[in-house]
Design brief:
The chain is mainly α. The protein has helices spanning 4-22, 31-41, 56-69, 72-94, 102-112, 115-122, 127-143, 151-161, 173-182, 187-209, 211-227, 239-255, 265-286, 294-311, 322-332.
């Protein structure tokens, strides 16, 4: 019924899901996880269940699974496992390879076993699902578009992303704006697809919350995010500290590399990682003039890097760096 590659993809999907089921957690890790856990019981942004912008697509999907299974930890892990699979899937498409090839197997390996990706796939948070949707949108906007196809899918996923992980939208600013202003005959169509993706989650959220309460919470939470809750440039103003914590999150949390007070066993891993990054950079430099995958991604990640360095809580929360970790995985590939 299936060709070999399809069979391998289906097997990988089940492996991603079941591996995350075995590592599911059944306790609340922090206040953000509590808010998402409560949102599965009762979605109410006014009660901060979860906090604005509500991430309604993610909450709705987990809630549907929870209604069937009845186990909160497993429900979040199923979404996390599926998100891990789709990250691998879109990387395979991006590099025009399959699980039958060594390159495809390597892609699956470094994503499947990445420590921070694995932790986030079990956590009661939408970050990994947001990363998979972001990568899908980038694929359709940049790489599939080379054959003149799938722009509408990219714009729809971009609108949908705002209802899954709003803070990942800066990743898509470059391709969205470039395509929009260079597509004179398709602007209306692309705009329609983008706002269709937005309305999929925004209209139900307005109906559930009420427009007035939604606007009030948006104003309070937006102001609080930047000025009150801590972690942004307005409350933690040392750019040096912000940069160091960001690098630590990527290196130590994202790849398991050595950092102060970490176990010496991480030194061996660090040596192999450094050697591989050096090899990757040399390879990219030698092929730079012919390279058509890394260049647009550098612009996407640079915009996102500036965004989180200034306006996200990189001091206390490592999870904001996972798009950068994914980019570095692409360099390794």
């Amino acid at each position: 019924m299936f060709n070999r590659n399809t069979s391998l993809l289906v097997s990988l999907l089940f492996l991603c899901i079941f591996s995350r089921l075995f590592s599911s957690i059944y306790y609340i890790e922090d206040i953000d996880s509590l808010r998402f856990a409560l949102s599965i019981k009762e979605f109410d942004i006014v009660k901060l269940q979860p906090h604005f912008p509500g991430y309604p697509v993610f909450c709705f999907l987990v809630k549907i699974i929870h209604l069937v299974i009845g186990n909160m930890g497993i429900s979040f892990s199923i979404v996390g496992g599926a998100s891990t699979f789709f990250i691998i899937y879109y990387l395979l498409r991006m590099f025009s390879t399959s699980l039958k090839a060594y390159e495809g197997q390597y892609i699956a390996l470094i994503i499947f076993l990445n420590p921070l990706f694995w932790l986030m796939s079990n956590r009661y948070m939408p970050d990994l699902m947001g990363l998979s949707i972001s990568l899908g949108a980038i694929y359709y906007l940049i790489f599939a578009n080379r054959q003149g196809r799938h722009l509408e899918k990219g714009f729809f996923l971009s609108g949908l992303l705002a209802g899954i992980r709003l803070s990942y939208l800066p990743l898509l600013f470059f391709p969205l704006l470039k395509i929009f202003f260079s597509s004179d005959n398709k602007k209306q169509t692309l705009t329609l697809y983008f706002f269709t993706g937005v309305f999929v989650w925004l209209i139900p959220m307005i109906l559930v919350t009420g427009l007035g309460d939604l606007i009030t919470m948006a104003e309070e939470q937006t102001s609080g995010h930047f000025m009150d809750f801590g972690g942004t440039i307005f409350t933690e103003q040392s750019l040096y500290d912000r940069f160091v914590f960001l690098i630590k999150s990527v290196w130590a949390d994202g790849f398991g590399g050595y950092w102060t007070y970490r176990g010496l066993t991480s030194v061996l891993l660090s040596i192999f990682l450094v050697l591989q990054f050096i090899t990757s950079i040399k390879d990219i430099r030698s092929k730079w003039n012919q390279e058509n995958k890394i260049k647009p991604l550098i612009l996407c990640v640079t915009i996102y890097f500036i965004w989180i360095l200034l306006f996200q809580n990189v001091i206390y929360k490592s999870r904001h760096v996972i798009p950068i970790i994914l980019f570095l995985c692409i360099l390794l590939i």
